[in-house]
Specification:
Blueprint (H helix, E strand, L loop, with lengths): L5 E4 L2 E2 L6 E2 L13 E5 L8 E6 L4 E7 L2 E6 L4 E6 L4 E5 L4 E5 L6 E6 L8 E2 L2 H9 L4
Antiparallel strand pairs: 1-9, 2-3, 4-11, 5-10, 5-12, 6-9, 6-11, 7-8, 7-10
The protein binds thymidine-5'-diphosphate.
The site of thymidine-5'-diphosphate has 6 residues, from strand 4 and strand 5.
């Protein structure tokens, strides 16, 4: 399993009738997709998703608008600004990630490697740091 976040440029078919992009599992997305969800109607400037997953890997696309994804391994933080629908961000499990600075009318599409599971979430940052430094995630 990969441990670094990775910004992936997706295929683009430019066309005067409107452009087209796509993603495929086990190709652009390095896992089998078990779940897809989207975040919408976010008030401009709002933040979401300050948590880590034990198992779930994710792939995030800004289908519309823009937002920042901050990925933190417990020691270093990386900020990825997603503002084009032909880029996706792969986020491995075991990293703390936050989504910030949503533009008005932005639409975040997320693919997950696991079904929704409450127990997969780590929502406490200090617990995350402890699990990380003990090598438990
Ligand atoms: P949550 O992951 O807590 O959102 P965020 O971290 O972005 O603030 O999800 C919000 C609510 O939606 C939570 O009560 C659980 C529910 N939910 C599901 O039932 N299935 C899902 O696939 C997701 C992502 C969330």
């Amino acid at each position: 399993m990969k441990v670094e976040p990775l910004l992936v440029e997706l295929p683009r078919f430019l066309d005067a009738r409107g452009n087209l992009s796509f993603v495929e599992q086990l190709n652009h997305i390095p896992f089998e997709i078990k779940r897809t969800y989207w975040i919408y109607d976010v008030p401009g400037g709002e933040s979401r998703g300050g948590h880590a997953y034990r198992k779930n890997q994710e792939f995030i696309v800004a289908l519309s608008g823009a937002f920042d994804v901050i990925v933190d391994d417990g020691q270093n933080k990386k900020k990825f600004t997603l503002n084009r629908s032909y880029y996706g961000l792969y986020v491995p499990a075991g990293l703390w990630r936050t989504m910030e600075n949503f533009s008005t009318n932005s639409l975040a599409l997320e693919f997950g490697s696991e079904h929704y599971c409450k127990e997969d979430y780590i929502r406490d940052y200090e617990q995350f740091k402890t699990l990380k430094s003990n090598g438990e995630i």
